[in-house]
Amino acid sequence: MRSNKFITFEGGEGSGKSTQIVLLSDYLRKQGIDCFTTREPGGAPNAELIRKILVTGENERWDAESEALLHFAARHAHLKNTVWPKLRRGTWVISDRFADSTMAYQGVAMGLGQGPIESLYQFAVGDFIPDLTFILDVPVALGLARARRRGNHENRYENMDTQFHERVRTAFLEIANREPLRCVVVDAENTIDDTRWAIIETVTQRFDV
After folding, report:
1. Among residues 48, 3, 8, 32, which one has the least CA distance to residue 186?
2. Element (H, E) at 7
3. Dihedral sign, CA of 126, 3, 32, 191?
4. Reported pTM
5. Phi and psi for 75 in degrees, rounded to 5?
6. Domains of the chain by range and CATH?
7. Torsions phi, psi of 96, nearest 5?
């Protein structure tokens, strides 16, 4: 088993990513694994500044091109200052969102296209990819209801219309179909505990934890 792993959680609004990241990290620490949780956009001081202008404000604040550039600027800072140093020290890093979100939200739902996202990925990230990606899938109406119950002020994306979120959901499932070795779709309509155990089972089997 390699001493470090980079695991990402993806999914639409209200899919339960943050909750499951906490539960997985707690489990891994109990197994004696040093792990660190982080998020995108954000996860490093400069990246958190970019996060503020992306996740708040009016729905039409940015066009797809501007948003994609901002996300990859934040991502590069996150990798350079947080993720890569942690991995070099042998730490497992678990991130709430990574580049699949940019493909789903800006590439597909906002219509930018796959090509520009892939080009930006090569420029800002290079050949680095997650070891494992969980895509938490939940019906849009249920996910949005969950998200709105949180009352989070970082609600710019969740305020997009239902059709936008349906495109996001479809995009994530298409990503999983394209990359079945990296991506695992988890039914997040289940209970928190059922979802947790589905994730833990995958991690233990994949990495011999």
Report:
1. 8
2. strand 6-11
3. positive
4. 0.94
5. -65, -45
6. 6-207 (3.40.50.300)
7. -80, 95
